[in-house]
Design a protein that fits this description.
Layout: H1 5-11, H2 17-21, H3 24-31, E1 42-44, E2 47-50, E3 53-57, H4 70-83, H5 98-111, E4 115-119, H6 122-133, E5 139-143, H7 148-157, E6 160-164, H8 169-178, E7 185-190, H9 202-210, E8 216-220, H10 235-238, E9 247-251, E10 261-265, H11 267-276, H12 278-281, H13 288-303, H14 306-325, E11 336-342, H15 344-356, E12 359-360, E13 362-364, E14 374-379, H16 386-403, H17 414-418
Parallel strand pairs: 3-12, 5-6, 5-7, 7-8, 8-9
Antiparallel strand pairs: 1-2, 2-3, 4-10, 9-10, 11-14, 13-14
The structure holds pyridoxal-5'-phosphate.
């Protein structure tokens, strides 16, 4: 049978149709509560300015408050003078500078691994590393709350991906026992989970892993680096277990006030990734000013351990304050403190009202969390002032009862506020339109 051309054209699907049908963002914009892509006119430390008005930033990942440190800015400027504004090519070919090599050595010392490899972003680090180390015959065991870049890396690897319940090491062990003996096995987890500030239960994970000697462990420490550990070396150092973790990745887009990512591990593995990870080989190198920024941040962190102490003090002030107000916040040992709101529409409206009162926080809604379990993610810097933190508490204290988001006014999933059970980020059907 021959199919005529006109018949094929008439039945072909338009891949853009889903875009024409997509209404969620338009609907939220029309409601006046669209909270994304707010254009910052300029910023000064922990305060950002919109249309000339100052707003206290509690929605960034600038945990050490180093983005505006004059010493960091000076080093970035000097790097531009020496190397220009960009590398205009992959490190593999023409984009490698002595600064990149120097940073790799410093990072290896910092996290306690033999060798590191610097990528252009953290996302590309996860994508390239996972996809080149794991293949179709292997199995990845991935925490249910892992970051999107891990999920994409897992997809790209074509390995079988088995998700274990969030931070549930019994579930991990059960699933490890079920995998075929001949398969390679990669256990992948965030060190600090970005939405809730949870820390991986690493001592338990390591003891499970020891029962499976060939399994390899990878930690994404985007949010632990610069924050946890005696000197900010990250989650593995926090538990004194750096040697038990095969690979540590980190990003420079949080504590290190820049952009970029790295992988740390044993030399043969790093060298393999250097010559096989396509997101490394076929993407332009991290700009010299960004590399110099990270080097300056590492130096400051070494010289000023009091920054970590100040960050802890700021965190304590906020946790005590949230407790006093009666908010349904998620207990945290990291600078990420999320507050349970539940309803998506309420989360958008609450964030807008915070903003109107001079506070910038971010809503976390479906599909980042299960539908109907929206959070307000707040995060703190070592450089937040006493006055700024008091303003945050005052505004939350004023608005929370009006919005009905006190513990006493809500039904809060107990696994969130007590962390007794795992809380799974499973996909739940729903649309944002339903709730506004
Ligand atoms: C846990 C985690 N991993 C990886 C990334 C990606 O890092 P980058 O922003 O450097 O691409 C992020 C960024 O949000 C993250 O939170």
């Amino acid at each position: 049978m021959t199919i005529s051309c006109s018949y094929i054209h008439a039945t072909m699907k338009d891949i853009f149709q889903k875009c024409f049908d997509y209404q969620d963002a338009k609907f939220v914009k029309a409601s006046g509560f669209y909270p994304f892509f707010k254009p910052i006119a300029h910023s000064k430390g922990s305060t950002v300015f919109y249309n000339g008005s100052p707003v206290v930033m509690i929605g960034s990942n600038n945990y050490l408050g180093l983005t505006h440190d004059p010493r960091v800015i000076q080093k970035a400027k000097e790097a531009i003078e020496i190397f220009g504004t960009g590398c205009t090519g992959s490190r593999f070919l023409n984009g490698n500078t002595v600064l990149h090599d120097h940073l790799e050595k410093k990072l290896a010392d910092f996290v306690g691994k033999e060798e590191t490899l610097v990528f252009t972003t953290g996302f590309l680090t996860n994508l390239g590393t996972i996809a080149c180390l794991v293949g179709p015959d292997d199995i990845i065991l991935s925490d249910a709350e892992n970051h999107a870049s891990i999920i994409e890396g897992c997809r790209l690897s074509k390995a079988t991906v088995i998700t274990y319940r969030h931070n549930d090491m019994q579930d991990l062990e059960k699933k490890l026992r079920e995998i075929p003996k001949e398969s390679g096995c990669f256990i992948v987890t965030d060190g600090v989970f970005s939405m809730t500030g949870d820390i991986v239960r690493l001592p338990e994970l390591v003891s499970v892993k020891k029962r499976f000697p060939k399994a390899r462990l990878f930690i994404d420490d985007a949010h632990g680096l610069g924050v946890l550990g005696p000197k900010g070396e990250g989650t593995a150092a926090h538990f004194g277990l750096a040697e038990e973790v095969d690979l540590i990745m980190g990003t420079f887009s949080k504590s290190f006030a820049s952009i970029g990512g790295f992988l740390a591990g044993q030399p043969d593995v790093i060298d393999y990734v250097r010559h096989r990870a396509r997101s490394f080989m076929f993407s332009a190198a991290m700009p010299p000013a960004s590399v110099a920024t990270v080097l300056a941040c590492l130096e400051i962190l070494k010289e000023e351990p009091q920054r970590l102490e100040q960050l802890k003090k700021n965190l304590k002030k906020i946790l005590d304050g949230f407790e006093k107000i009666g908010l349904a916040y998620i207990p945290s040992e990291t600078p990420i403190v999320s507050v349970f709101v539940g309803d998506e529409g309420k989360a958008f409206r609450f964030v807008q009202e915070l903003f109107n009162n001079g506070i910038f926080a971010t809503p976390v809604v479906y599909p980042a969390v299960p539908f109907g379990q929206a959070l307000i993610r707040t995060s703190y810097m070592a450089t937040h002032t006493e006055k700024e933190l008091e303003q945050v508490l005052r505004v939350f204290g004023k608005l929370a009862p009006q919005f009905g988001i006190l513990k006493s006014q809500l039904e809060v999933p107990t696994e969130l506020t007590h962390k007794t059970q795992s809380y799974s980020w499973h996909e739940t059907p729903g649309t944002l339109q339903k709730c506004l």
